[in-house]
């Protein structure tokens, strides 16, 4: 009995890998590597790069905001 079981396994392994598994490895492997590399770069950038500077608010927008709040704008 054990000899027949071993022969069956050997024949199955001789056929090669399951084609579905090959596709999963070819597509999934690089995808996982890409996601891990993105995460590592993100963490590195958060630690080492300076924070992004905000753009200065234009005087026109500043006036508009103050008018919305009801604060009198100097010079008008």
TrEMBL record:
Q: Looking at the record, which segments are called Disordered?
A: 51-76
User: What GO cellular-component annotations does this UniProt entry give?
Assistant: nucleus
One example GO MF annotation: DNA binding
Known InterPro entries for this protein?
A: S1FA_DNA-bd
Please verify whether the record's keywords include Chloroplast. Answer: no
**This protein's UniProt keywords:** DNA-binding, Membrane, Nucleus, Repressor, Transcription, Transcription regulation, Transmembrane, Transmembrane helix
Its function, per the record, reads:
DNA-binding protein that specifically recognizes a negative element (S1F) within the RPS1 promoter.
- Protein known as: DNA-binding protein S1FA2
């Amino acid at each position: 009995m054990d000899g027949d079981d071993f022969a069956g396994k050997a024949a199955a392994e001789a056929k090669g890998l399951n084609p579905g598994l090959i596709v999963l490895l070819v597509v999934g492997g690089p995808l996982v590597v890409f996601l891990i590399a993105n995460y590592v770069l993100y963490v590195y950038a958060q630690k080492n790069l300076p924070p992004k500077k905000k753009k200065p608010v234009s005087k026109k927008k500043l006036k508009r905001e103050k008018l919305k709040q009801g604060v009198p704008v100097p010079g008008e």
